[in-house]
Amino acid sequence: MEHVAPKPAAASAVRAFLHEQENKELLRFLTCGSVDDGKSTLIGRLLYDTKLIFEDQLATLEKDSKKHGTTGDDIDFALLVDGLEAEREQGITIDVAYRFFATPKRKFIVADTPGHEQYTRNMATGASTADLAIVLIDARQGVLRQTRRHSFIASLLGIRHIVLAVNKIDLVGFDRAVFDRIVGDYRAFAKDLGFETLTPIPISARYGDNVTQRSGRMDWYTGPALLEHLETVPLASADVKKPFRFPVQYVNRPNLDFRGFAGTVASGTIAQGDTVVVAKSGKPSRVKRIVAQGGDLRTASEGQAVTIVLEDEIEVSRGNMLVAPDARPHVADQFTANIVWFDEHALLPGRSYLLRTETDQMNATVTELKHRIDINTFAHEAAKSLELNEVGVCNISTQSPVAFDTYADNRVTGAFILIDRITNATAGAGMILHPLRRASNVHWQALDVDKKARAELKHQKPAVLWFTGLSGSGKSTIANLLEKKLHANGRHTYILDGDNVRHGLNRDLGFTEEDRVENIRRVAEVARLMVDAGLLVLVSFISPFRAERRMARELMGEGEFVEVFVDTPFEECARRDPKGLYARALRGEIKNFTGVDSPYEAPEHADVHLETTGRSPEELTEALETWLRERGYI
């Protein structure tokens, strides 16, 4: 078949069309609110009315509406967005669903987020990149707790434009008084949330009233239809005025002649020849090349994925940032942040988590929970923990310095997540408020006599022997017998016993989960100092949580932590009951007793596993002593 080249005029028109589409403004927005407010239905209606549903999609939608729909013989537009089978079967949204559509004026990416409280983390995910939030409210229900929660999280995550979509207005007879009451309630609640615009629109997502065009059934409403507002709401211009930030994803070195730093420009612009600074070290260099797919660029700006080649061979690794020399980010290992907690296990000060930024990752500890925020009144409440979906302000301490901006200045470089070290689940999302300077004038003092010198004087390898097990398992008995043997052989030791320490160092702590975490944190720090003194430290604590035992291990050097699991069944411990505690706990007289109404997380990979059934304390002590001798500790 003969190839026919397109006419010049047609080719020019195609190029002009593509250029126009490429340069349209992009608005990212999300729908949020309480359960059954019609978020998925609204997005489905938007896609349908803007004629962005293909014929085969429409046919499938009509079929699914008969099987799963909740709108009678009408099309259930929610099914267009709820893609998971579980969502269709239950009639709820679980995961975030992203959809793209465009009009002649603007391009859009919309995130449909769940309304259920248990999926708040997914709502926060959708909000993290959005410019605008459509907060849906069922006209019959008014402002609900989840409406407040989602609005507050949207504010924390930097969203500054809100559309208050009062949905299902048809079910209240298009009553203006109902609409005005809901708008008044919401404005009163949201007046201190810092939104730049708040536009209330009465809609019926099911029937399309005020969605893509103004409805003729509400003469009293003179504002814009939803799509009209989305096309015209002012957007922040490209962040060329913000300082240059380039978090390094990885070092690209395919051969000896090329070394570049790959990543995505988080803010600002960069050009060939510009001077940049490595955030953590402060070392300067100049940009030699900006490499992108298809060739070199003269400049790069926010959102572009590029590889930057520098003129100098300076150390830059993943997790660091290349930044503008005259507007550098903060570099600190302590800061204050807003935290939205996602995990069923509460946030506990003193517990170790993994902190992950755009490109960096390290151990981190919540050193202080300053307060919890009541989402209804915004009151600051004293609290010892953050439960699922709660919001609080915390001080964070990281194992090594982090380069960051405040979240208000940069949503990319000012955000992080906390990851549970045991389950690897995302436990919380954080927005940095400001660095803490409290330790900026405190430095390690160099000492001439170090741990190695102290250990050599004692002719032993310093270490922590961490005995863990239920109350009554025999931890203290075995630790005491072992210390007697070691002392007789001229070893330098010290026992930190759980009960003894609570008479002094930890006398202010109780037995709640929060206090147990702090109990172990303090003891681990003391044990580390004793190891530094060259001692063999025998720590005898129930220490019920794996996370705290792992935290204690990571405080020590390689081979300096030996976890000894004294494994005695609960029934045997309760039978022994040397202090009468099990009997009182089982009668309900003692609360938060490990093994009864507080959990014990047994070690999964203890260094030494002492099964006590059928074996005497002396036998177990001898076995442990042999283990230590074979590995050079004594």
Detailed description of the structure:
With 634 residues, the chain is of the alpha/beta class. It has four domains: 19-232, Rossmann fold (3-Layer(aba) Sandwich); 245-323, Translation factors (Elongation Factor Tu (Ef-tu), domain 3, Beta Barrel); 330-435, Beta Barrel (Elongation Factor Tu (Ef-tu), domain 3); 451-630, 3-Layer(aba) Sandwich (Rossmann fold), CATH 3.40.50.300. It contains 16 helices and 27 strands. It has a six-stranded mixed β-sheet, with helices on both faces. Helix 10 (475-488) crosses helix 16 and helix 12 packs parallel to helix 13 (546-555). The longest helix has 20 residues, at 513-532. The radius of gyration is 31 Å and the shape is globular. The model is unreliable at 82-94 (pLDDT under 50).
Q: How would you briefly describe this protein structure?
A:
This protein is an alpha/beta fold. The protein has four domains: 19-232, Rossmann fold (3-Layer(aba) Sandwich); 245-323, Elongation Factor Tu (Ef-tu), domain 3 (Beta Barrel); 330-435, Elongation Factor Tu (Ef-tu), domain 3 (Beta Barrel); 451-630, Rossmann fold (3-Layer(aba) Sandwich), CATH 3.40.50.300.
